[in-house]
Amino acid sequence: MFRMKAAVYVEPGRIELTEKPMPAIGPNDALLRITTTTICGTDVHIMKGEYPVKPGLTIGHEPVGIIEELGSNVHGYREGQRVIAGAICPGFTSHACQDGHPAQDGGCHGHGYKPMGGWRFGNTIDGVQAEYALVPDAQANLAPIPDGLTDEQVLMCPDIMSTGFVGAESANIRIGDTVAIFAQGPIGLCATAGARLRGASCIIVVDGIDQRLSISRNMGADITLNFHEVDVISEILRLTGGRGVDAAIEALGTQSTFESALRVLKPGGTLSSLGVYSSDLTIPLNAFCSGLGDHRIVTSLCPGGKERMRRLLDVVSAGRIDTASLVTHRYALDDIVEAYELFAHQRDGVLKVAITP
Amino acid sequence: MFRMKAAVYVEPGRIELTEKPMPAIGPNDALLRITTTTICGTDVHIMKGEYPVKPGLTIGHEPVGIIEELGSNVHGYREGQRVIAGAICPGFTSHACQDGHPAQDGGCHGHGYKPMGGWRFGNTIDGVQAEYALVPDAQANLAPIPDGLTDEQVLMCPDIMSTGFVGAESANIRIGDTVAIFAQGPIGLCATAGARLRGASCIIVVDGIDQRLSISRNMGADITLNFHEVDVISEILRLTGGRGVDAAIEALGTQSTFESALRVLKPGGTLSSLGVYSSDLTIPLNAFCSGLGDHRIVTSLCPGGKERMRRLLDVVSAGRIDTASLVTHRYALDDIVEAYELFAHQRDGVLKVAITP
Amino acid sequence: MFRMKAAVYVEPGRIELTEKPMPAIGPNDALLRITTTTICGTDVHIMKGEYPVKPGLTIGHEPVGIIEELGSNVHGYREGQRVIAGAICPGFTSHACQDGHPAQDGGCHGHGYKPMGGWRFGNTIDGVQAEYALVPDAQANLAPIPDGLTDEQVLMCPDIMSTGFVGAESANIRIGDTVAIFAQGPIGLCATAGARLRGASCIIVVDGIDQRLSISRNMGADITLNFHEVDVISEILRLTGGRGVDAAIEALGTQSTFESALRVLKPGGTLSSLGVYSSDLTIPLNAFCSGLGDHRIVTSLCPGGKERMRRLLDVVSAGRIDTASLVTHRYALDDIVEAYELFAHQRDGVLKVAITP
Amino acid sequence: MFRMKAAVYVEPGRIELTEKPMPAIGPNDALLRITTTTICGTDVHIMKGEYPVKPGLTIGHEPVGIIEELGSNVHGYREGQRVIAGAICPGFTSHACQDGHPAQDGGCHGHGYKPMGGWRFGNTIDGVQAEYALVPDAQANLAPIPDGLTDEQVLMCPDIMSTGFVGAESANIRIGDTVAIFAQGPIGLCATAGARLRGASCIIVVDGIDQRLSISRNMGADITLNFHEVDVISEILRLTGGRGVDAAIEALGTQSTFESALRVLKPGGTLSSLGVYSSDLTIPLNAFCSGLGDHRIVTSLCPGGKERMRRLLDVVSAGRIDTASLVTHRYALDDIVEAYELFAHQRDGVLKVAITP
């Protein structure tokens, strides 16, 4: 039986490259030969044991690859075709999916919702940091890569770009809005690009690393603030003439960024939250106008499915965004443990690493 | 010079009926002879000194009355006409108003927003618990009462009904939704009616007073839960087959109701908050799915303006709701201190009191 | 091989009851034993040859039945269970479906849309006016009937109620709206109920048959107009004080009703169109304010899928609507040709017929 | 008494520069000294007598100027300040305004709507092709010009840019959409920029003049089609793989462009119409899928008010769009009749003319 290499979760603090049998393809699956993948902040949480998965599970949820084999029920694709699939890959038939919440897919039984239920790769099924991976419900999830795009150009589509963009989409940005974005890691940078794509006329971004703030400008930021250098809240209020921003996007997952986002928000504004929090959040009474400020706090999980991927690939193909530049480091799959080491400690100015089996 | 009676804030714990000069009408004002008004929970906060207003200010923000005199710029109304005005009565010309947030009206200068800036009666200008009151920006705020409606039938329109309904509107209820509403005071009861008006097919309401739960059924509730008798969270999850509700409306302003609303909410659902909170709020990490549950938390202040009032009056006139039944007690203006006493202590099953000068 | 009775299209003007082999079930199908179905206006178009289908096709798209057999990929249901399926039963995995337009499902290949592509029963596959019928993509389309509801109580859910309600939903009705609905056949009557469910405070309905207008009142109409007796346009303008209605729903499919709907619509209002037109439409220049009236014209095809059906069944179960009363006549499947005869000629005050195999 | 020069409508075919008394300022007005204005297609309709206005009326509705005097009720501005006002300048207090339709402002009496009622300059009151002009309801309509912007940079804000952008906004464009825009005059060009600002990834524009198509590319178009050279409908269907566009924007006002927009639209798509039509429109049955294609046809009149103007000025100030380049010709007010002559005949590649008193 053929075997393949895969990065698996072993125990808290340990991810290993191991050998596994090739997965057995079912009628609704597609088997991909992974050509490029990457490591996500969530994978680091998994490695550290902060987000529990089953030991032995292959991790990773950002696949770029080539169709090796198609299940008998999967039509309209061909073997050898270059494709991606979203980090979130629901079946799209469940009640939650038909109700407009595919990322919270409760599965086909009953009429339930399951928090983050649409996230399966490297969570509830084997992921894609491997030589091969199965895409479940492939009919709903495979998106062909347009001609002329490299793997690295589309590598952010499955998760980072989809998440960053939805931050701007959920913020309900209108032409002429002023938007503040807290944290400029890969997702925050894509939120910046997303805010630009939705028509914001003043995009203020906040981070503590000048290198990132410099990339922010390429992604569309108008004003960059280093929180080591200025009091961010008073500076944003000053910049907006005391008015506050129309929308604030949180892209880190801490009390501090969440709270700052609320404190610079105008009454009637939207706080769009993308971060993965690790403790209870506090809403300060005064920033919340005692509940009377017509505020909206919206959280969004990365949208998936082939239509979302098609749209993001079109955005890349049309040259509206350059996310290839977020790839700062490259590793062979054989060296993925080393890549985790670098990425987990955020060494060497790393933004995203490309992993090639 | 003519003088009139008015209930004014004196110091924490004390509201008094006093005499004041009749207000001097400006070109954009209307002078109303108040025929009926009522006391709101907010007024009790003011009385207790929890929400500071200037000593000597007339309080109250729910006017039903007769036009005594019209400012020179106010057209399309006539003296002697029966009207109401919303508790929130902005000018509608400011940036915040034109931007869709009249309740957060920042005034005509600059381009600012002011939290709750549209609320003026009994907050930043003299209120309506008096024999006479000025309606500012009357052209934008006076709504004639349709023939055949009594004062008590329309008494909830300026605040309670507008607030309760917006709780359902902001919850984005769709036909067939399951909705949970926490607290069934006057606003919660109107939120129940609002959920019914928007097409919810299962309305679950929660309170600790059986008398209120019995009124809830008249307002449209399908299922009533007394939190003294059942564990509300587990019961709602059981009733929804583990799925959670599509929308939850908070109508009290406490950590407990806010948190319960979030705990029974499905991923992808909306928590619509109406309560006035008096301390920081905590969002529990697990109920919030670590920020990945596609939740929406929306707060809404009572919409005002003559168009909103016209719509609510039409709803009453068409017999879609009976809020006259919420009036449980009646007092003359002369006895308003006694009315505050009863209302502040929620004695004798009081829901709303009608005050008649 | 087992055979069953089915109503098939033969040639223009002729539908016949015939015998066919029992359908062969595929892995994604469910085989239903039909217990009740009905005839739709669309079926009459098919019978007359105005909407071409393949000769020999079983027609009908409104199934109420019992699960006889489940395909191997269909989970979460059991044989013997009472269910319905929507008239529109897409697979929900295509680009069009993921993009929010399941009724225009372009199928799983390419990224196309197909007008009305989600309508398959009695159009592109065998329909349900038969003893047995296959539900395609059953996992996405089967909706269990709540206990205690009769077949006739749920018979309108698959098409008539879903269509009527979407007329109100697409009209973007808000609390306090005035709505005019043109034609009060079964769909128009359900649009009336839908407008009521969305919070309209003044519902004006128009038809030429007094019997229907009398049912309209039971469905929620406030004002009924018989177009034989009044000039409908001037009367509606009079009733609204010259303002026009906030939303107008067209429920017939003629130039006259479409045009009247536009003529009574306020600037800024929505014309929600449900009818199936049979010739080009004319938009009169003045009613359209030369294109400057901020009008919206929205068409909607009946929403389907198990989540929509679940919601409609909940609405029935909660007693929010009684559509069983729309069933005016009952026939055995053996007599379906006679039922078509009656229905096509709208004899004997027929609204809907129940057909029982 | 001081007199000023103004361009007035005399009779069909004739606009003249004449002398008029300076307007008398009321308490809610601002008197502007016009520094730059322009001629709109609508003005040409007026000149030709196709859109009737009162003889002697000053025409023009796109003011850039300096505050000469403020009415006694107008606060927050100062004399000598450079400002613009929208072509649409409602009072914002009427029912229509509070209901979200300021362009259809019915005035303060009753609760009416008036088609295009918010358009007053050069329609129901004296316009701005003059040395001086009154801005009514100035508090709601004056927008200061940010430092560093020239008159020509902001000259398109009052009408052309606001109209073009609303074409994209009403089209409900999402990130990754394909959009077709019919006609690339000044409004169509701004619609192109608007589609880009909303995140469309493929913008296809259609015109018959290559010079305009070349400007289209600068405004954000991806693909330009000259209808003299290709069959536009089949080419757009080919370019979209048969799928049709997500949104089509009509920017001319003819049956041909309207119909083409519908013919290239996917089921479920939106036709956003900006043109001013001069005859009844026909909706072709097949392009409309007999009313079952989930289509939306939306018309929009230029949004006005100071908040809209502030947003557009911010868009210009941030360098998101360069509309100064649309000014192809410049005239003194003294030569306005000559400017009309050129503009009405679309000579010499004219797009917009700047008129300076």
Automatic annotation (TrEMBL), chains A, B, C, D:
Keywords: Metal-binding, Oxidoreductase, Zinc. It comes from the Bacteria. One of its GO terms (molecular function) is oxidoreductase activity, acting on the CH-OH group of donors, NAD or NADP as acceptor. It holds the Pfam family ADH_N. Its cofactor is Zn(2+). Gene3D superfamilies: Medium-chain alcohol dehydrogenases, catalytic domain, NAD(P)-binding Rossmann-like Domain. Coiled coil: none annotated. Belongs to the zinc-containing alcohol dehydrogenase family. PANTHER family: NADP-DEPENDENT ISOPROPANOL DEHYDROGENASE, ZINC-TYPE ALCOHOL DEHYDROGENASE-LIKE. This is NAD(P)-dependent alcohol dehydrogenase.
